[in-house]
């Protein structure tokens, strides 16, 4: 494991997070998702859309957040990704653990939901997520959408 700092996203992180996204196209993200990711970053806040970055030697190498919906008593994992050059080093685990820890201390949240692809669904199963629905080509041609959930027990 490399030395990491996990901190809240700042608007100055925009370009670095886009570079992390781009490093994961086309296997993990479809090119047409780029605009949606940009829009998400522009709407990040620390109340109902917190977003985290993982840095190593002052460079952002991973990012991901939550979309909190207290009226539904759930939060969604949003736009989690690790720079492709750093895959396989436990950073996705660190990012997911940080987001789940944040979800657990958020009042009125009982469940975490996410949408992921066939390429990462087993990773999330390792955290206890279960599949709710699979939509073939749900993100793009050849990129299936796996809807998953994790019940939080406080």
Account of the protein in words:
With 154 residues, the chain is of the alpha+beta class. The protein has one domain: 3-Layer(aba) Sandwich (Aminopeptidase). It has four helices and seven strands; from the N terminus they run βααβββαβαββ. A seven-stranded mixed β-sheet has the order 1-2-3-4-5-7-6, sandwiched between helices. β4, α3 and β5 form a beta-alpha-beta unit. α1 packs antiparallel against α2. The longest helix has 14 residues. The protein is globular, with a radius of gyration of 15 Å. The two termini are 29 Å apart. The mean pLDDT is 93.
Strand and helix layout:
Layout: E1 5-8, H1 14-23, H2 34-42, E2 51-56, E3 59-69, E4 74-82, H3 91-104, E5 111-116, H4 121-125, E6 130-140, E7 143-151
Parallel strand pairs: 4-5
Antiparallel strand pairs: 1-2, 2-3, 3-4, 5-7, 6-7
Helix pairs in contact: 1-2
Strand order, sheet with most strands: 1-2-3-4-5-7-6
Order of helices and strands: EHHEEEHEHEE
What is the CATH class designation? Alpha Beta
Q: Give me the secondary-structure category.
A: alpha+beta
Low-confidence stretches: none
Assess the beta-strand content as a share of residues.
Answer: 35-45%
Rounded to the nearest angstrom, the distance between the terminal CA atoms is 29 Å
- Shape descriptor reads globular
Q: Can you tell me the CATH architecture?
A: 3-Layer(aba) Sandwich
**Averaging pLDDT over every residue, what do you get?**
93
Question: Would you identify the CATH H-level superfamily?
Answer: Gcn5-related N-acetyltransferase (GNAT)
Query: Which topology does CATH recognise?
Result: Aminopeptidase
- When the domains are counted, the total is 1
Q: How many beta strands in the DSSP annotation? A: 7
Helix segment tally:
4
Instruction: Let me know the largest β-sheet.
Output: 7 strands, mixed
The helix fraction, in percent, is 10-25%
Rounded to an integer, what's the Rg over CA atoms?
15 Å
């Amino acid at each position: 494991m490399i030395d990491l700092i996990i901190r809240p996203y700042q608007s100055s992180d925009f370009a670095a997070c886009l570079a992390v996204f781009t490093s994961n196209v086309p296997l993990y993200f479809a090119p047409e998702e780029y605009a949606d990711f940009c829009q998400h970053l522009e709407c990040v806040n620390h109340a109902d859309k917190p977003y985290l970055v993982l840095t190593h030697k002052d460079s952002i190498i991973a990012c991901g957040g939550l979309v909190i919906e207290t009226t539904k008593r759930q939060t969604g994992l949003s736009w989690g990704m690790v720079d492709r050059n750093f895959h396989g080093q436990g950073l996705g685990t660190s990012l997911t653990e940080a987001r789940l820890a944040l979800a657990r201390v958020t009042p009125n949240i009982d469940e975490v939901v996410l949408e992921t692809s066939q390429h990462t669904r087993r990773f999330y199963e390792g955290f206890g997520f279960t599949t709710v629905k699979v939509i073939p080509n749900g993100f793009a041609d050849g990129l299936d959408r796996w809807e998953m959930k994790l019940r939080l027990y406080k």
